[in-house]
Every structure is written in C-alpha cells, then in structure tokens.
Amino acid sequence: MRLAKKWLFPLLTCLVVLGSVALPRRISEARDAKQLGQIHTEDLAEEDLPVYEPPSLMDRLELYARWCTPSETIPSFQSPAILYDEDPGQCENLVRQALERLAQAEVIPSHFLSSTLTITSLNRILLWDPAVSAGRQEPMEFWSVMADLGDGSFWMRLDGESGLPLTWSLYDPNMARWLPYKDPQALPSLAERYFALLDLEAAEVGASGDTALWERHFSTADTGITYEISFNATMLNIQVTWDTTGPISNFDHSSGFDR
C-alpha cells in the first residue's frame, strides 16, 4: 500500500503534463472541424462592395486614339463582322443610326439618309487597356465600316457602346454645294457641331495661314486626344490621334470653342 502511494503522485503528475500538451490540440482540431464543416455568411454594407464602373465615352475614345498612334502598343483583335454575314439588315441599321446622328447634328446634309447604302466592309475591333490586367476587364468594342452612299462613299469608325462615329471620312463629288471649302467659317462651324455630337470640349490649336481654311487641328481639354479635320471640294476627313507629349493642361477656351 505504501509502495502504491509512492508511485501514484508521480504517475498523476505525468498524466496531467501529457493532458496539458495534448488536450488543447484536440480541442482546437475539433473546433476547426466543426467550423469548416459549415457555410459562413457575413452581411456587408453596400458601400463595402466593389462597384464596377464601365469605361466612359472619353475612356474609350482615349484608348482608341492611343491605338491609332504607332508609338504605343495596345492589345487588340480585329475580324470581319460575323454579324454582317448573319444579318446584313442589322448591320445596315447600325450604320444608318450613325448617319442619322451626323445628319441631326448637321455634320452632313439630311439628303444622305435617303441615298442607297451599300456596306462593302465591316470589321469588329476589340481593344484592351494595357494598364489593366486582361482578366479584370472587358474589351472595348469598335466597328470599322466602309460603304457606298449613292454617288459618294465613306469610311467610319464607330464606338461599339454608344454607336457614335469617332472618325469619319467622306467622298462626295457634290460636297461644295453644302460645305463651301473657301468659306473661312465652314470648317470651324462643322467641327463645333461634330464635337457637340460627341459631347466633347475642344479648342482649336495651331491654326494659321491659308491652309487653316481647309485644315484645322483641335485638342480636347486636359487629355492627349487630338483631332485633325480637313476638307476640300470633294473630301471630308475627321481623324483622331493621340498627342504623345501628354495632355494640354492649360486649356485655352478662347482659342476656339467648347461646350
């Protein structure tokens, strides 16, 4: 009996030590198994949720202008429009809507709307912003269109989101009847109406000499987006480019016009 008591205390002490080491671990494992076996939900405040903001027209126009400038590489993909093969009428409606907007803005005369429209080429263009991971963004869509329009023809690039013509090139043998190229106010007035259609704030830059009658350059406020608009007796060109020197911060509203 006395021998049993002698070994009982050391044995109990050993068991307590072993229990203090193993028991917390067992309790933790059991707690983890219980928690991981359940679906946990947590209410988040609305302001804590990430909000997706699609690119604005200015964002899309800026990316397109950068893509048109050879000094920068913009990830892109081009292909003939499958839509044109499947439903020519839908493609024609897309182009006619752009023509109607140009006519409503008085960039082109309304008689073009009654002309015979024949689409000769329609291509889809997808652009990705190189500053954003490709997996985190949807490509920006644009359309390149070539078409015959009665006696004339045109080429345009449309923004896929808004349907607005970002660039425009028109051949019309009778253009001098509605756009007198010797009128010093003809081109600035047309440019003002065109920028109003795109809801862009723009000012003329670098206009001087006789060439200013039929060729003008415009810059949008606080961006690197620039436009070159030129015309003669039969041709009208409205083209967008990207100023690689950077945006014009000191925007002179008095040098042209703005909205």
What does this structure look like?
By secondary structure, the chain is α+β, with helices and mostly antiparallel strands. The protein is built from five helices and nine strands, in the order ααβααββββαββββ. It has a nine-stranded antiparallel beta sheet. 22% of the residues are buried. The model is unreliable at 248-259 (pLDDT under 50).
**Fraction of residues in helix:** 25-40%
Question: What structural category characterises the helix and strand content?
Answer: alpha+beta
Could you give the order of strands across the largest sheet? 1-2-3-4-5-9-8-7-6
Please give the largest β-sheet: 9 strands, antiparallel
Low-confidence stretches: 248-259
Element order, helices and strands?
HHEHHEEEEHEEEE
Number of strands: 9
General form? globular
Name the features.
alpha+beta, 259 residues, 9-stranded antiparallel sheet, 25% strand, globular, disordered C terminus
Give me the secondary-structure topology:
Elements: H1 2-36, H2 57-68, E1 76-80, H3 82-86, H4 88-104, E2 117-127, E3 140-149, E4 152-159, E5 165-171, H5 186-198, E6 202-205, E7 215-220, E8 225-231, E9 235-242
Short synopsis of the structure:
By secondary structure, the protein is of the alpha+beta class. The protein has five helices and nine strands. The model is unreliable at 248-259 (pLDDT under 50).
